[in-house]
Write a structure and sequence with these properties.
With 350 residues, the chain is of the alpha/beta class. The protein has ten helices and 16 strands. The radius of gyration is 20 Å and the shape is globular. Bound molecules: zinc ion.
Length: 350
Amino acid sequence: MVIRIRGRALPHGEHVDLYADGDRWTTDPVQNADLVAEGWLLPGLVDAHTHPGAAAAGDPLDHAVLRDHLRQHVDAGVTVIRAPGLAGEPPPWFGVDPDTPRAWHAGPWLAQHGQFIDGWGRRADHAELPALAAAQAARTGWAKVIGDWSSDGEPVPLDVLSAVVRAVHAVGGRVAVHTQQTAGGEVAVLAGADSVEHGMSLDPDLLTRMAEQGTALTPTLSVMARSVPEVRGRPDGPGRTWFLRGAQAHGSLVAAAAEAGVRVLAGTDSMPHGGIVEEVRALAGAGMRPHDALAAASWDARAYLGLPGLEPGAPADAVVYAEDPRSDLDQLAHPIAVILRGLPVRVTRR
Ligand SMILES: [Zn+2]
């Protein structure tokens, strides 16, 4: 059975009538195709920062948990994920099985000794970081470096992170850098990281440079905002002050980043999985235009990962809504259909 979708395709809103020829969209009509949905079409949602497969921080990768998390993403309309850090080597079906999203991943987080979450990631000397990162990126296209950790962990030095970026680019890969400190954020940008993850407390003066050199920002805004009440309840201390100051400034940083032309990517940092819609709301709530907040979680994030949108020859992913989600973000919580690799994985018949 060949499936067909039609309606108005974002980002431009033009009318399209698409048939899935296996995992490729085509406009060539196919007789007796099954029209599974009509409405407003997106080329699927993207969660650009999620760590599926572990029940809790520090836990090993569990294949059943992994599948469960991936299904939660698909239920939310996510057809592509990027996992900047995984708790273990993913199974061969990861990113491939019909009802799980396409996936990019960076293998284990690479961190300095004494930093990051116990049980997760790989610790490395500065001297071995570039080669380790390049070897990972050669395998999966991405390496993830913990550029700084917590309120007081020393950031990876600029010369080391610059060497990491050079080594990874030399094998055709990209580097994602976790940073939540002003100093670490500056190192990530000056080193030419491909994406800054979180970017809490980032100096807004660096946004122009990020836009110019193509460094994306994945602000993980919703998870950070969710942590505020809990952190506020902690006893006074430098860690509490650091987090609250950074988290409270984060929304305006995101708005300024979008304004400066920085590519913003929607990422949930996972818990609960399938929370991408909440991140889109948070981005819009911070002041991004709904069109841009949606781009960050769909067509623009796909383009960043090398996937075209709803056009002939593109991979056959789509999520369909009854109304234009840009004028009503609540639409995002109620997709009519989720199409993945040319197959209707979730459909609400009306
Ligand atoms: Zn993360």
